[in-house]
């Protein structure tokens, strides 16, 4: 059987990005796969154009949104999605605000599901979208469960971009927030990612007590703060999803 070289290289790039511990630069991809720079440039450009790969805010490469769009059936089989769907629909009905489900990938959050309410506000956060992990309530909820060594390694080279005037400015400031968020069991994004959007989020853990995602409620700041039931409901449903994912005890106070 004849192997088409260009097609083989596409799959090699996808496999490399899948197995990498972080986003990769063009040079790192070329060195790992022994692809000449001129050939690699055109290959990556084509894959970018078709959205099979993407670049993060540091111009490094990751798997792209097209893989999510093509994998809708795979998403339906994904445990996190399946186990969360009933609970986030219940939250949406109960709170009547937009509910998000997302999971961490390196230093970003990938949005898996968004359930709108009849009074949702416009947001760039859509299924398949990615946001810096430090600027979102969902990301901070996940980060609050990381140990300090993991956090130090993750943010060793991360540059904090001011997405809005309220975005956290440094790793030092972020760590202070995470201490509070871990203690209270939920995280907050106070217009740090989008002006006008206030978010309350809680982490989802698996059977090994590892964070695998987060759920959040988002809406106008005054309306979200006024509804005092939201933090407890978000925490409680994140806990229920964690139990569905196999967690037997996560130490989170849901009262």
Describe this structure in words.
With 255 residues, the chain is α+β, with helices and mostly antiparallel strands. Helices cover 44% and strands 18% of the residues. It has helices at 5-19, 26-33, 37-49, 66-70, 72-77, 79-95, 137-143, 148-154, 171-184, 221-226, 230-244; strands spanning 53-55, 61-63, 98-105, 108-115, 130-132, 187-190, 198-205, 211-219. The strands form two sheets. It has a six-stranded antiparallel beta sheet with strand order 5-4-3-8-7-6, with helices on both faces. A two-stranded antiparallel ribbon has the order 1-2.
Q: Approximately how much helix is present in the residues? A: 40-55%
The main pleated sheet reads as: 6 strands, antiparallel
- The chain-level structural class is alpha+beta
Averaged pLDDT: 87
Outline of this structure?
44% of the residues lie in helices and 18% in strands.
SSE topology sketch:
Layout: H1 5-19, H2 26-33, H3 37-49, E1 53-55, E2 61-63, H4 66-70, H5 72-77, H6 79-95, E3 98-105, E4 108-115, E5 130-132, H7 137-143, H8 148-154, H9 171-184, E6 187-190, E7 198-205, E8 211-219, H10 221-226, H11 230-244
Antiparallel strand pairs: 1-2, 3-4, 3-8, 4-5, 6-7, 7-8
Key phrases:
44% helix; alpha+beta; 255 residues
